[in-house]
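Record type: monomer structure entry
Structure origin: computed from sequence
Chain ID: A
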Amino acid sequence: MTRLAVFLLLLGGMPTGASAQDEGIAIGARAPVVVVNDIDGKPVDLGAYLGKQPVLLEFWATWCNVCEELLPRVQAAYDTYGGSVAFFGVNVTVNQTPERVRRWIASHHPPYRTLYDDKGVSTRAYEAPITSYIVIIDAAGRVAYTGTGADQDITGALARVTRK
């Protein structure tokens, strides 16, 4: 079984034939408030950010080639909006260990705070259909954008929620 298949099974499966915008949490939905540990095991309450400022969540894994291709776009978005948007990378922990994730972080230097979702709390709450899944939440705490793949216009999506 592939890693993606394992990931999808952990999420409860994914409907076949669904497109990127048909998957995951609905645009306009109130963003779920969840507590997820960071890579060091410290709890991070997303409620401390939601409804106060825009938030970007990327659901990723060290083995995800698409996530690695997406990284320059995430970095560019952070370079533009890092002062006004909270950036989190949610490691989905399928075939991951904290040590493996730490090594990846040390070599790739992602521009987000890394969350280690070993209980699947945020992955389920945000209905992440696959890795490379981006969720952008506006300052009112509503989901404003979701997407998958390496060619997402993250900077454009953030421009719409920050009015920059």
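Annotation 1: Residues 76 and 155 are 7 Å apart (CA to CA).
Annotation 2: The chain has one domain: 45-162.
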